[in-house]
Amino acid sequence: MRVAILAHSEVALFELGCATELFCQRRAETEGLYYGEVVTFAERPPTTAGGLSLQCRQVEGLMEYDLLVIPNWPTVPQPMDVYRARVHRAVTEFATCGRKILTFCSGAFLPAELGLLDGRKATTHWRYAESFRRRFPLVEYVGDVLYVWHNLLACAAGSSAAIDLGIEFLRQTYGVELASSVARRLVMAPQRQGGQAQFVETPVSKRPDFFASALDWALANLQGSISVDDWAAQAHHSRRSFDRKFRRSLGVSPKTWLIQQRLRVVQKALESGEASLDRAAQLAGFASSTTMRHHFRKVFGVSPSQYRRQFSRRPGIT
């Protein structure tokens, strides 16, 4: 897979760095899977913040690429000139041909300008929310998420949410094992769900973090039956305060989080090709393989069997 990362004179260096770290950094586990490069439609190398000049590949189109990453885009309307017309034409052609597009931070402004997000959900950095809503009333703006995924086009909110979206893309494309490996390299959580809030204002506690310890306890005991009441006791919380803190901190209920973690165990078991569906369900702590199948299809949109056929390194086990 060839990945184009769009650069211009106002490109944000942090988001550009996230894109290059995800798609251009050479790693043994990603060798031969994808290749990324920074491209520009400008006639001269873009000069960014701090006077940094970017030596990147100048292109006239994008059709030799499979994935386009837009780290950011100007949030204020710009006069149409030869450069912008060229970008608009190339991105429209790319999207029309069914190629995938990821936008980081204000990068969502570009496909929105082109009408590619009309009638769809989208997000961007919270500081640009009002501007985005005013300029693109046909787009359903979503503010309380890390990223939004709609078929071939996905938008991440600001800053580190770009990495969350990139990791999710790798997980959907190449499986949880590779995505987790890249996440470990970046010292990131393997998966933060897109439905989490962009930011949570929580003061730093000076007391022992029993809540974090309770999460570790749950992960260590996934194979067994975990009641939320027992889990709350591990965190030294009442059931009600535990539920409240869980939703505030992680954006989901304790039961939903447990299902997410169990499904990650199932994914790894299916990718290894060494476990049957019944065994995968048992390893993850699901009451039955039927329950596991139900949650798997609901979250990932495919059956466990389909997932294994796509990602298993040892197909054939049933």
List the helices and strands and how they pair.
Elements: E1 2-6, H1 13-23, E2 35-40, E3 57-58, E4 67-70, H2 82-96, E5 100-103, H3 109-113, E6 121-122, H4 129-135, E7 140-141, E8 147-150, E9 153-156, H5 161-174, H6 176-185, H7 210-220, H8 228-234, H9 239-250, H10 254-272, H11 277-284, H12 289-300, H13 304-311
**Biggest β-sheet: strands ordered side by side in the sheet:** 3-2-1-4-5-9-8
Beta strand count:
9
Terminal-residue CA separation: 30 Å
Shape type: globular
User: How would a crystallographer describe the biggest sheet?
Assistant: 7 strands, mixed
| CATH domain class of the largest domain | Alpha Beta
- pLDDT averaged over residues: 86
**Total tally of structural domains:** 2
Report the β-strand fraction as a percent range. 5-15%
How big is the Rg? 21 Å
H/E element string? EHEEEHEHEHEEEHHHHHHHHH
Binned, the helix content reads 40-55%
InterPro entries: Class_I_gatase-like, DJ-1/PfpI, Homeodomain-like_sf, HTH_AraC, INH-QAR
Keywords: Transcription, Transcription regulation
Protein name: GlxA family transcriptional regulator
Domain HTH araC/xylS-type: 212-310
What report would you give on this structure?
It contains 13 helices and nine strands. The chain is α/β, with parallel strands linked by helices and 318 residues long. It folds into two domains: 2-185, Rossmann fold; 205-318, Arc Repressor Mutant, subunit A, CATH 1.10.10. The protein has a seven-stranded mixed β-sheet, covered by helices on one side. Strands 6-7 form a two-stranded parallel sheet. Strand 8 (147-150) and strand 9 (153-156) form a beta hairpin. The radius of gyration is 21 Å and the shape is globular. It starts with a strand and ends in a 7-residue tail after the last helix.
